[in-house]
Each structure stands twice: as C-alpha cells, then as structure tokens.
Amino acid sequence: MQRKRLDRVNQLLKEEISTLLQRELKDPRLGFVSVTEVEASQDLRTAKVFVSVLGDDAQWTGSLAALASAAAETAPPAAAGSPVSVRSGSGASGMPIR
Description:
Layout lengths: L1 H22 L8 E9 L6 E8 L2 H17 L19 E5 L1
Antiparallel strand pairs: 1-2, 2-3
C-alpha cells in the first residue's frame, strides 16, 4: 500500500513540476525541457527530478543552469541553507529538490 501512495505522489509531483516549467518559469536560458521521472524519498522530504533537454550542449547547459537557479530560489525557508545539486548523466539529469 505504501508503494502505491509513493507512486501517486511521484506522478503528481511530475505533473506539477512540468506545469511550473511550462507556465511559471520565465528564464531565457531554459530550453525545451521535459520532466521524465520523479523519485520522492519515503519520508517525502526530498525528491530527485529527472529531466530531458532537447537541443545541443549549449542549450543543455543553459537549461540545467536555469533549473538549478529556479530550484535554489524556490527552496523553502527551512532548507535555504541546503545545497541544491544538479548532476548530469547520459540522457537524463537528476536534480534533488529539498
């Protein structure tokens, strides 16, 4: 039962983050970014957001910088001192959001 709940939370987070990226984030560095997966922790305190960026290396780098900047700006006050990391990998990037 717990796994089913976490799957629903992950799906809702994916939809909300996708909507925010499309409608709210107005950073010119942000290219065509798709949220491919979200993995929330069991306690729901953190989540890894996996994204796919369409374009060349410059667009990819700019988009990840825009996402890292947006994540740092939207962190809750209690987590303001917590680092937000953006890691790159093959195909998708995981960005833990606190």
